[in-house]
Amino acid sequence: VDFPPPCPSIIETGELTSSSSVASSEPRYNHPLTRARHTHTTTMATTLEEKQKELDALQSAFDEYIASSRELERELEEELESCQNDLTKSESRNAALSNQLANIQPQLTSLETKSSALTVRLTSETERRIASETKTEEAENRLRQTEGALAAMRSKSNAEVGKLQGENEELCERLAFLEGEAQECRDELNKERERHREEVEVLRGDVSLLETRLKERDAEKLELMEQVATGIAMGMRDVADKRNHEGNDNDNIVNGEEKMMVSESAVKEQKPSPP
């Protein structure tokens, strides 16, 4: 939009009047263009006042920014100086640490050598541990298998023990019954033994009596046989005497003696042996 140029009096003087004073002393214009120029001039005066206020606010903000910037710059310089001092101290410490590092470098080398040896040893120990764990797992598997077999055997043995316990109870009952019967048999045997003892005592008395009678009879037989032998001997002697008188030869005498000896032996054989 093209606006008409401002009033020469306002531009030349640079002075702005307020809208109220402009409105109160607004002149009368006969031409519309003159009125439009006057209105535009009044609007520009108001806009310039607002811009001046904004410019004053910006100037104040800029002054505050400059002041804060200077304060910040001063703080930054102090911080920079402090950092510089810390850097110097750090460089000194780094130099000291470098010297210490140079001094402990042989120790580090030795430690690295030992670390390598320990690494090799650790590897070996790890392999051994793995092998040991493998053996342990195998042993645990065998142990589990053994425990399973043992559990099966235990269950089987429990069943057999239960069966044996039942059989044992039956045998105990049978044994108690047999013990009762044995006690009864023992009592009967004792009675039979007592009766047999009494019978044996009676039989012993009878045997003693019979032995006495046999001894008496044997004595009678012996006496009779002695009498018979005596009679035979006397008869033989009579025969021998007769034969001697008749003049028999020696052979007949020997035959008589032989007969006598045979009769005596027969008598001895018929004698009973002592009891």
Task: Write up this protein.
The protein is mainly α and about 280 residues long. Helices cover about 90% and strands about 0% of the residues. It contains four helices and no strands. It has helices at about 10-15, 20-25, 30-245, 250-270. The longest helix has about 220 residues, at about 30-245. The protein is rod-shaped, with a radius of gyration of 83 Å.
Number of strands: 0
Distance between the termini: 189 Å
Number of helices: 4
State the order of secondary-structure elements, H for helix, E for strand: HHHH
Which parts are unreliable, with pLDDT below 50 for 5 consecutive residues or more?
A: 1-27, 271-275
Helix content: over 70%
User: Overall mean pLDDT score?
Assistant: 76
Main beta sheet: none
Query: Approximately how much beta-strand content do the residues carry?
Result: under 5%
* Molecular shape: rod-shaped
Tell me the Rg in angstroms: 83 Å
Q: What class would the helix/strand composition place it in?
A: mainly alpha
Keywords:
single chain, 275 residues, mainly alpha, 4 helices, rod-shaped, disordered C terminus
Short description:
This protein has 275 residues and is mainly α.
Set out the fold topology.
Elements: H1 8-13, H2 19-24, H3 32-246, H4 250-270
